Amino acid sequence: MKNYFSKSKEELFKLFSVGENGLSNEEAQERLKKYGKNQLNEEEKESTFSVFISQFKDFLVIILIIASIISLISGNVESTIVILVVIVINAILGTVQHVKAEQSINSLKSLSSPKIKVLRNGEKVEISSELVVPGDIMLLEAGDLVPADGRVLESFSLLVNESSLTGESENVEKKSEVINVEELSIGDQKNMVFSGSLVSYGRGVILVTQTGMNTELGKIAKLLESTKQKTTPLQVSLDNFGKKLSVGIIILCIVIFIINLFHGVNILDSLMFAVALAVAAIPEALSSIVTIVLAIGTQKLSKENAIVKKLKSVESLGCVGVICSDKTGTLTQNKMTVKKVYISEKVLDASGLDKDNKIDKLILQESILCNDATNDVGDPTEIALVNLADKYGIDFKELKHTYPRISEIPFDSDRKLMSTVHKIDNDIIMFTKGAVDSLVPRITHILINNEVREIKKEDIKKIEETNNLFAETGLRVLTYAYKILNSEKEISLEDENNYIFIGLVGMIDPPRAESKAAVEKCIMAGIKPVMITGDHKVTARTIAREIGIYHEGDRVIEGLELEKMTDEELKAQVERTSVYARVSPEHKIRIVNAWQSLGKICAMTGDGVNDAPALKKADIGIAMGITGTEVSKDAASMILTDDNFSTIVKAITTGRNIYANIKNSIRFLLSGNTAAIIAVIYSSFAGLPVIFAPVHLLFINLLTDSLPAIAIGMEPSHGDVLKDKPRDPKEPILTNSLAISILIEGLIIAIFVVIGYYIGYGSTKDALKGSTIAFSVLCLARLFHGFNCRGKHSIFGLGISKNMFSIIAFIIGFVLLSAVLLIPGLHGIFEVAPISMRDICIIYVLAFIPSLLIQLYKIIKYKK
Ligand code: ATP
């Protein structure tokens, strides 16, 4: 362990060849080459080859290999080759799907990778945490994830949580002073910060000492939880379903095997057939299709500005019943503009100040000095204040330079205050700004017409009335106060009292144009939108009413009130409450809990460091990509790259659509398999020769079926998904009504397959011709059926060309089938007879009728 904690700033600068201005860009590039990216070595990535090999470990493939061995023993070399070729093609398809899914997940990972501010060439720039190098000067602030190990050069109440490293859940205060000892445990290195910890409060300037695997975290990286994607609940339940089904099918195959023996088919052929039937019937593609559809879905979501970090969340999106959303920036534009000012008992327009008057001047000074923003970077509330002063020709840089900050207590959303200390002329002034209800109770005096006097009850009443007046027009209100200190000292929370009131500043933050329509959609979709804000009750209600979240008769609950309520009381109120005002981040967890105890799936937004627990607790934790802290992004399951409420609604729509598509893919696969099984069972019981050759079933199940199933998974949304209620998360994917549709559709297709068989078999009892036609009808009918499974409505309702993938999948299947039927060289391999023009017409008609019937049914049903 290096003892950076015992080195002075100068020694460290020398050691890392860097100065106050940070590294130059060129030097940073050099160091990046030398030390590598600042990342932990992830687990060995599976090579494409090993993914390919792992495809052969599948249960189904093992059955197929047995089948090829049986073929070989029975002297059917061609069949063996076909099976082996099919296995290889299937493995290639599986590998491509796996690699594609992996790629899309990885590209999302890089989109959500954390950012950090560093000094490069003296400028503050934001870079991806991976690019941090030893010697960089990092500017940490509340909400950041510490990306590398470093020595604290300056600390402003910097509190860091190191629990991931030391297990200690309490925040640790970090200071810059040198610690003069030889050795220290990590927990005692109070002037060092370590990768993997999070900044919970204050800010600090840090010199990066170690990056990547050289950090303390890197040394224990092996112990870290793997970030590998786990299987989603849907995949688990489909796998279970698949296993149960497989057992049933194997029993069925044994029965068919015995029946075939009974009918005099030889033992090897009977065995071969039973194996092929198992392959045809087991829906082995289900789980992988779900993965690929979910992965493609996440890509689509990211294009719609929602980055979903876990596949599992895509599923849960469709179940969301409540969206608890922050107001500022999510429902509103987060573009604040000061509109009104209240001083000396008068309400003025923002343009009505007189900058030569003492009290007006104090307002403008405090606006700049008690502020961390510039005119375009920082918290929008504070940017608005810089812009206010700018209107009066006050240059914020110059003023900050003239009256430098001596001490500060940063803003936090629990205290709702911010304080700074400056020497102005001969006075040491402490400025504090904050929420009216947090600051006014700490006030003892008032500045009116440039005179300070004790504050009276009437003054407070007037302040509160004005605050209400501002809030009713949707303004966010800040109180300004100050006090004179005796000396230049470090202030602490105990100093935040005995203030002199200066005035109120009211600023507008208009709702986003899209919010109202998005709220309407939510309500139509049976989802309850709830506003949660740190803002004042009246401001919040005014904005909530404007965008349709608040309706007359709804409850508005304030943080203080919520604190007094028991969990049971909150649970009883939560459904009628549409606005929570003046809440602190801890309240958000209780709101999520209350909704979850009512069985609702709850989405919750958050941006601050203290929002992380609520984001973790929510079923879908949503962080803000632009304004959110890294800690909140880390805790969230979804990140909005545009911070916009309407994106949440879009993501839910897409989530519902993805689920519906998966269901439709399942319907397609299972109904086709059912058709094959019914036809086979019929032929066995009717004493007909075996209706399909094994290779037929392999051909359909492994070659022509997968593409339409994936194409169905890519069906675009038709808008009607929002007309349903949110899905019950406990509802199985294979509902009774879906099972009935699968059986009926399978039966209809099977009937026409059997008719095809009889036509081919004819009076000449030509079994090869019969099975050729039966196979072709089954294959083509399933391809047509792909269009039926695209959605609830008829093909005209859905729009034929809306899903080009389904047309392409059909064409590929059709071409493959035509090749097998029409190229004489393939006849032997695929066990088909030469066919005439008449046979082709019969196949087309028989394959088309089931879809025609299903489409007619849909047209009649959905016309009503
Ligand atoms: P929302 O929860 O809707 O996103 P918010 O997160 O912006 O709102 P907070 O930031 O917690 O809410 O602000 C709560 C209150 O604190 C505001 O109404 C305002 O009075 C006060 N406030 C906000 N920003 C500052 C600041 N930079 N300095 C001092 N006070 C502030």
UniProtKB/TrEMBL annotation:
Coiled coil: none annotated. It comes from the Bacteria. NCBIfam families: ATPase_P-type. This is Cation-translocating P-type ATPase. GO terms for molecular function: ATP binding; ATP hydrolysis activity; ATPase-coupled monoatomic cation transmembrane transporter activity; metal ion binding; metal ion transmembrane transporter activity; P-type ion transporter activity. InterPro entries: ATPase_P-typ_cation-transptr_C (IPR006068), ATPase_P-typ_cation-transptr_N (IPR004014), ATPase_P-typ_cyto_dom_N (IPR023299), ATPase_P-typ_P_site (IPR018303), ATPase_P-typ_TM_dom_sf (IPR023298), ATPase_P-typ_transduc_dom_A_sf (IPR008250), ATPase_P-type_domA (IPR059000), HAD-like_sf (IPR036412). The chain crosses the membrane at residues 81-99, 245-265, 271-296, 666-685, 733-761, 805-830, 842-860. It is found in: Cell membrane. It is a multi-pass membrane protein. Keywords: ATP-binding, Cell membrane, Ion transport, Membrane, Metal-binding, Nucleotide-binding, Phosphoprotein, Translocase, Transmembrane, Transmembrane helix, Transport. Residues 3-76 form the Cation-transporting P-type ATPase N-terminal domain. It holds the Pfam family Cation_ATPase. GO terms for cellular component: plasma membrane. One of its GO terms (biological process) is export from cell. PROSITE patterns: ATPASE_E1_E2. Belongs to the cation transport ATPase (P-type) (TC 3.A.3) family. Type IIA subfamily.
